[in-house]
Amino acid sequence: MKYQFSDRINLNLWKKKFLLFILLLVILPSILNNHPSRDIYLYDETFYLESADTLSGFQDAASYSFYYKMLSKIWKNPVERYFSNYLVLVLSLCFVFISIAKNSRELLLYSSFLSLIIVSPLIVSAMPFITMFSSVLIALAIYTYYNRRFSAFILISFVLTYARVEFYAFFLLSFVFVFLNLFNKSKKSLILPSLFYLLGLCIAILRNPSSQERAYIAFCQHYAFSKYQRGLYFDDPWTTCDRLLLQDFGIVGDLQKVLLGNFSALLEHIVLNIKSLFEVLAKNLNLPLYFVVTILVLTLFAEVYRLILNIRRRRLVLTLDSIFLFTFLGFSTIGSILYYPRDHYLLQILIVVIFFIKRGAILLEISFVRKKFQQFKKYLVLSGVIIFLLFVGLYFKNHKKMIISGLEKECGVLRLAETIKYLNLKEIHMLSPDGGLCVYLGNKNCENIYPYEKKMKFLDFIEKRKINIILLTEYYEKDAIYRDDSEFKKFRESNYKLNSGTYFEEVLLYTCKARKILVKKE
């Protein structure tokens, strides 16, 4: 039977994908350029960029260096290449998830996921970029496996091995999943995946990625960084970590020997990393810790339920599907658990988790919603309303983070208002060129006085309006009403004195260089 074009391609779905992709192209530059400290980072990322110029053989992160080599054909300038690489990787991650959506439900799920991570530090301040590269490969590997494109799956798993060394063991296991999937099918279907695997295996044996120093250096630096963060190590963790390993493990230079050198120290390091993992994840996603933990537990429980169900029914392929995803999750968390849960390691974990969530949603629909929707309709609607209200509540809880952000700005208006409130004045008559602050001070006896209201000499103006706070900025130097006032000039030159018994004093607690708070003293 021949399929019509409309049978194979959902035109409405692809229209949605196209519009979503165009929307991303419009809004991504605004999001990514909004980072306050965008700059070139040395060490890791610069090393990958530089190694592409002298690419020889299969070294650490060879696939990423080769990818940089291809970019060098387009962007000759290394600075342009550095930032263009970042843009390409972010766009690639978005493109992959939008493209692999099979229906509107999956498109909604992936779009929600992308909107969550794109604005988070996982993407906005990602460093190094290689983890975004590996995350794209992880998404493609999972997609090709579940769509039974096993040759592509083997190839992507091999490339992933030379991006992140912790996936070397996964590549070795990859053929087991392929073989068991195709065992009862045509032997011809095994030929191409077998050739790809054997070729990759030969290269991996000759140039074993796990034999390089990268894994050891990562553990060394992050072990020291963890202790540095807890105030237990005071030297530079990135350049002096060998000393700490020698002190705690009694050996340096060989990761395997180091890990076996002091089990209690290793266990403490891993336990602290697991604990920090959930906290860092919640912080980066801007979600409460309990919410993140609940979603992860429910998602994993759904997959365990699916696994048990398929084992009981003796469905080998479906059982392998669950084991495959758990295996991938295990290897994705190695960096966060063995090294340290740095932001960029978490992205890999979330890529796998979103596939868990997708499979959990499908299981829920098949096992519960379709069969028992009418019976539990009221409860399902109520659950939907509760979930909606929960997200609305989470959305408006962001005002606390906005307040903290405002307080951290040295010259922010919020910090200015809080400083004046701290003065605890009974009455406030404030001369402010920046606008009225009284509404934010919680003081009923507060009056906003604006510089343009001055129609007399400076001293008379202060006395008549009972001004007891002056916000001093460069505004007064630019306004002729004050610049040409001899009394105002004398006021500034005499260290803010009005007469023999009255003067204004600067609030030293307020450290903004562009603005001073002057309080009247008598």
Domain count: 2
Sheet with the most strands: spatial strand order: 2-1-3-5-4
Q: Work out the strand percent.
A: under 5%
What is the number of beta strands? 5
Number of separate helices: 26
Mean pLDDT across the residues is 85
Share of helix, binned: 55-70%
Gyration radius, to the nearest Å?
A: 31 Å
The global form is elongated
Provide the structure class. mainly alpha
**What low-confidence regions span 5 or more consecutive residues with pLDDT below 50?**
1-7
The end-to-end distance, rounded to whole angstroms, is 97 Å
Word description of this protein:
By secondary structure, the chain is mostly helical. The chain has helices at 5-8, 11-32, 44-51, 62-72, 78-100, 104-118, 121-124, 130-146, 150-161, 168-182, 191-206, 214-229, 241-249, 255-259, 263-285, 289-312, 316-332, 334-339, 343-372, 377-396, 398-408, 413-423, 458-464, 475-478, 480-483, 486-493; strands spanning 428-431, 446-449, 469-472, 503-506, 516-521. A five-stranded mixed sheet has the order 2-1-3-5-4, with no helix packed on it. Helix 5 packs antiparallel against helix 6 (104-118), helix 8 packs antiparallel against helix 9 and helix 9 (150-161) packs parallel to helix 11 (191-206). The termini are far apart.
